[in-house]
Amino acid sequence: MTLQSVVLLFIVYIHQVCARDENITGYIGQSVILKSGVDQSWNLTRVQWSIYENTTFIASLNNGKINTDRFWRHKGRLELNPKTGDLTINDLRLDDNMIYSVALVNSNEAREDAEVNLTVQERLMKPDIQKAFNFTKDGQCYIVLKCIPSGENVILSWTPVGVFNGSYISGSPKSKDSILLISFSGNRSVTFNCTASSGQHNESNQITVGCTEENQKPEVCSLCSSCTSMVLLAIVITAVVFGLLYASKGKKNLLYIANWA
Ligand SMILES: *[C@@H]1O[C@H](CO)[C@@H](O)[C@H](O)[C@H]1NC(C)=O
Ligand SMILES: *[C@@H]1O[C@H](CO)[C@@H](O)[C@H](O)[C@H]1NC(C)=O
Ligand SMILES: *[C@@H]1O[C@H](CO)[C@@H](O)[C@H](O)[C@H]1NC(C)=O
After folding, report:
1. Ligand 3 atom 2: the closest Cα is on which residue?
2. Probe ligand 1: pick from 50, 51, 53, 56, max atoms within 8 Å of CB?
3. In this structure, are residues 177 and 157 in contact, taking their beta carbons and an 8 Å threshold?
4. Separation in Å, CA 135 to CA 22, 187, 229
5. pTM assigned to the model
6. Phi and psi for 192 in degrees, rounded to 5?
7. How far is C-alpha 246 from the chain's CA centre?
8. Ligand 1 near 55 CB (within 6 A)
């Protein structure tokens, strides 16, 4: 066995061990699926979902029989998938926020346990998009956009609406960056889409931006007070302006600065 394969196996092992402890976010009034994470080859004979330290059962599968009304708290809101052992909680409430345990048994009497830590939040909202700054240099329009999610545990991604034939200096599509820094030629506008994803739900918002004649000089627009990384943003903007205006190899330095930021 080579060193690489040992490392690889170790990573796979770590990944599997960690995967048994899931964190998931759900939203009030919506549904969430708690994954049992069971091996797909397993033929499940028993599944027991429970809550609290005293193992209060809420849903079970026993020899083909499903019972999802075992405890008042989740009564009438649960669905148990007998193939996968996944538990769906419908019409989420804030107090569904807790750790869920599952015990799984297959036809060979092998047993597995897993835990899912469910965080319940207010409904996922559209992210807020702000133009942090824009200016023109040598016929190129540079724009910095910032996407602000409404909650926590949200993954952001940027996509152009239609064809974008300019370049990404920082925050290319699918990069999960909240800040997007783009440049393109000409006096036109582009539209970008920021999607906030909680894993099971998506909400997106769009912004159309361009460089206008009045905006020849760098101008930092006012940012909302909820901006947590304003200082970082200020550093990025300062660094970018400096890089663009004074560096001899502007683009190269810009890339370096953008990556560093
Ligand atoms: C288990 O704990 C919960 C919350 O602490 C409590 O409401 C419930 O009555 C307990 N069940 C048993 C069987 O003790
Ligand atoms: C924005 O992106 C999301 C996710 O890729 C997509 O579902 C949505 O249709 C896009 N909206 C527009 C206007 O392109
Ligand atoms: C990008 O699109 C604009 C407008 O459609 C066009 O004027 C420009 O030449 C294009 N640039 C490139 C590099 O294709």
Report:
1. 165
2. 56
3. no
4. 44, 11, 21
5. 0.51
6. -125, 150
7. 37
8. no
Q: Which of 50, 51, 52, 71 to mutate to test the pocket of ligand 1 (most atoms within 8 A of CB)?
A: 52
| Spatial contact of 170 and 261, defined as CB atoms under 8 Å apart | yes
Checking if the pLDDT of 235 tops 60, the result is no
Q: Beta strands 87-89 and 44-51: pairing type?
A: unpaired
Locate the DSSP E strands across 138-257.
140-148, 155-160, 167-170, 179-185, 189-197, 202-210, 219-220
What residue type is assigned to position 184 of the chain? Answer: F
Q: How confident is the model over 125-175, as pLDDT tens digits?
A: 899 999 988 888 888 999 999 999 877 778 899 999 999 989 998 876 666
List of residues 6+ apart from 244 with CB closer than 8 A: 137, 142, 250, 254
Task: Give the distance, in angstroms, between the CA of residue 156 and the centroid of all CA atoms in the same chain.
Answer: 6
Distance from Cα 119 to the centre of ligand 1, integer Å: 21
- Cα 52 to ligand 1 centre (Å): 7
Q: Which domains, ranges and CATH numbers included, belong to the chain? A: 22-121 (2.60.40.10), 128-247 (2.60.40)
- Compute the distance from residue 193 Cα to the ligand 2 centre, in Å: 6
The ligand 1 atom at the shortest distance from the C-alpha of residue 52 is 2
* Ligand closest in space to the Cα of 139: 3
